[in-house]
Model the fold of this input.
Amino acid sequence: MLPDSLWLLVSALALSLPDRTAAQTPSRALLLNTPLALAAANFSSTSTPLLFALPDPPSSSSPLTVSIALCSAASSAAPRFFITNDSQVAVPGPGGGTDVWELVVDSGGLANVTMTMDGGAGKLAVWGGGASDSVEIGASDSGPLHEHLPEPPLLGDSTSNQALLYSPPFGASPLAQPTYPNYTLPPAELAFPTPPDGPLPNYTLILAPLTAALTSQPQTACALRSHADAKTAGDVLRQQNWLRDEQGWRTEWLLDGLTPLTNYTAYTIQDGTKVNGPTYFTTKSASFSCQLVHSLPFCPTTSYAVPLPPPPAQSAAYDSKSLPPAISTPLLAYLTNFTTSLLTSACGRDHYSPLKSCADCQRAYRHWLCAVSFPRCGEFPHVAATATTSASASTAGATGAQQPFAVPAALVPQPSGVPARNPAFPAFSQPYTALLPCLETCYDVDRACPAFMGFKCPRPEFNANVSYGVGFVDGVLGKEGVVGGGSTGAAQDRWGNVWCNPS
Ligand SMILES: *[C@@H]1O[C@H](CO)[C@@H](O)[C@H](O)[C@H]1NC(C)=O
Ligand SMILES: *[C@@H]1O[C@H](CO)[C@@H](O)[C@H](O)[C@H]1NC(C)=O
Ligand SMILES: *[C@@H]1O[C@H](CO)[C@@H](O)[C@H](O)[C@H]1NC(C)=O
Ligand SMILES: *[C@@H]1O[C@H](CO)[C@@H](O)[C@H](O)[C@H]1NC(C)=O
Ligand SMILES: *[C@@H]1O[C@H](CO)[C@@H](O)[C@H](O)[C@H]1NC(C)=O
Ligand SMILES: *[C@@H]1O[C@H](CO)[C@@H](O)[C@H](O)[C@H]1NC(C)=O
Ligand SMILES: *[C@@H]1O[C@H](CO)[C@@H](O)[C@H](O)[C@H]1NC(C)=O
Ligand SMILES: *[C@@H]1O[C@H](CO)[C@@H](O)[C@H](O)[C@H]1NC(C)=O
Done:
């Protein structure tokens, strides 16, 4: 008497007898680390499955991970995927058997299985599949080829029709810790950062208005790509790898041609198969008149809208080439003088703190100086900011209807013509709304620098809220110093809310 599972297997073999020789030596093969796409034309109309040989990992000790990604929502005839690493199994399928697994996609359209291989025994069978189905299959020796990674892309800032977006960080941050006796700090004017050697991840940005409903697609690279293709919003004016902060490098995109007051959805795709996102953001109203500044080596985190007139014709946003020297020169002088005073202490010899060094102090001061030197423009939220249609949103924008946020942001209206907060800035001819820096930016300097530098931050119970966003990130007044204990726990979120300027 045969055990049930074996009996099923035998009968499955018997049924597919005419195909048997072909089935036992699959004529198609999956290549290691190369995704394979299957669409309607590939699915067989009969009950015969498509059979693929699986590659062996280069090292016999490393397991093979096979992943499936749906490239369109599954139809009622959606294909099923069966896999085996047992050479005795001719065609893995619903009949089961020893070492036969089914890959069942999750709600995000992904599935994966990891198993050890026994020299050329691996097979994958695709059963069924309808005219509207489309999938990608991957085999890899370093985890799933298809993956939805947790960290979303980062919004720098937006104007009415432009935006700065960043991929998740990659590569270790090359922040040098100098040592005694050669305690050298970086100069105020940092060199333009050079990307690390070796292969860098290849990030692609997918951006579409929220109405394009990318979020209702399978959250896979191929689905987002094919759905966004016709609808991709805006134009990429500039793309570069940028060392933004100690978290590491990011790919930066400067986009133009967006629609005012529209809620956009942004994803990044790493090396064609791995997805990060979504991140949401809303463009400002058509009357928003501030300009983006970015790509400043001496202020690497500065990437937001500032109250300056439109930049010279050849640049779409201010960068180190187009920024007026009247703004950069004093900033660099403050930083140079600060660094000189800091180096009069016994940097690297007498440790004023077990945790912080002179290099940390200089970094925190640079960050703070940039945040207070470049006033950031914001905008009170508009009623139709969720952008059901951009047309109705612009009408609401024109009337300037304001909607209270659950937690109002640190926004302060600035009437036109008043002297700028930073005297190096020309008076701005239009009224704008300032988004104040987060108070934590100041506290970071206070914590990182030796006491003799005399750096002081305003106290939350007095007038700190005149110059800073207070109590958003860390706790204040009764919850002092509780990191992340503030009203929002962060300066901004992935839904498009920004409460204070973190950079
Ligand atoms: C899938 O079908 C397309 C179009 O007929 C063909 O070019 C491609 O080679 C097929 N792929 C496989 C893996 O059979
Ligand atoms: C792989 O599949 C398992 C369940 O089979 C799931 O928990 C896991 O999140 C998947 N991994 C990835 C990277 O999708
Ligand atoms: C198939 O993979 C499973 C899980 O990794 C493993 O336990 C089993 O020994 C493998 N079988 C063969 C024939 O390699
Ligand atoms: C001190 O360090 C700097 C930067 O790390 C380096 O450029 C310089 O050559 C060093 N000087 C000496 C004397 O080692
Ligand atoms: C990055 O990916 C895109 C799209 O997948 C491709 O066109 C481009 O050639 C890739 N670039 C590099 C450097 O691999
Ligand atoms: C920097 O220090 C020099 C010399 O001490 C001084 O003349 C200059 O005013 C200082 N600059 C700033 C911006 O503080
Ligand atoms: C954009 O849309 C998302 C999804 O509906 C929502 O959660 C988010 O709050 C919206 N963002 C803004 C700024 O309206
Ligand atoms: C600033 O804080 C003071 C005292 O805590 C409070 O009375 C005032 O309303 C606050 N101002 C703003 C703009 O939040």
